[in-house]
């Protein structure tokens, strides 16, 4: 993947990691614009290449009454407005092949959720839009097996593919990140570390996924230290009341301090 080929992405000559960040789900226009404005200001200041993230719908839910979205086109139009207002690219998840063409009208990067990354029709549909495709490694898959997912994209005529490490299931209610897998997957495509989802605690008795947000800084620093190409971090100005994944999101007010530390760490790593 060539980072500079993502429309509107800035600071690609800075030597910094790139960042995919935003709320888990689009809850409304005001919240999306508020989060985007803060993140754009921070990443411009630190010269971090940035892509705004927001799911236009949430199909993978623990309970039938869990929040799933505000309406597909309504949410996608909000993502498009974020892109137009702040001149940044956007990324969203897709869940069925029919989502690919729809979402591609509004966003710049299509993301394949970890649970669905072996779904050939979905991966190929995303690839054939010509958009950059972010493949999240299945929690049940080895780093080596992700080479086949990448090949599905490239064999469909699309070289714009990136991989995201988001942890491997450890027992029923925990995830671990095996950092040995990052250089392995970098043989196939640039690699992003999904910091916040790697700290999820799924399969809780309540049906609401838990998390360990106090370890976000630790996880992110470890990723930069081993040389990831990018970071993925979900954030919200009020995680406790977020409608999806609030238990593992970073408080928005903490983002600038953490990214400042990570930028400095990246410079140390590059100079070592």
From TrEMBL:
The answer to whether UniProt assigns keyword Oxidoreductase to this entry is no
Q: Which residues form the DAHP synthetase I/KDSA domain?
A: 9-269
What are this entry's molecular-function GO terms? 3-deoxy-8-phosphooctulonate synthase activity
Entry-linked Pfam families:
DAHP_synth_1
Its cellular-component GO annotations read: cytoplasm
Q: What is its EC number?
A: 2.5.1.55
What domain of life does the UniProt record list for this protein's source? Answer: Bacteria
Q: Which Gene Ontology biological process is one annotated for this entry?
A: lipopolysaccharide biosynthetic process
Q: Could you tell me what reaction this enzyme catalyses?
A: D-arabinose 5-phosphate + phosphoenolpyruvate + H2O = 3-deoxy-alpha-D-manno-2-octulosonate-8-phosphate + phosphate
Gene3D superfamilies attached to this UniProt entry? Aldolase class I
The family database entries (InterPro entries) matched by this protein are listed as: Aldolase_TIM, DAHP1/KDSA, KDO8P_synthase
Q: What is its main location?
A: cytoplasm
Keywords in UniProt for this one?
A: Cytoplasm, Transferase
Cellular localisation? Cytoplasm
| Pathway listed | Carbohydrate biosynthesis; 3-deoxy-D-manno-octulosonate biosynthesis; 3-deoxy-D-manno-octulosonate from D-ribulose 5-phosphate: step 2/3; Bacterial outer membrane biogenesis; lipopolysaccharide biosynthesis
Query: So what family is this one in?
Result: Belongs to the KdsA family.
How is this protein named in the record? 3-deoxy-8-phosphooctulonate synthase
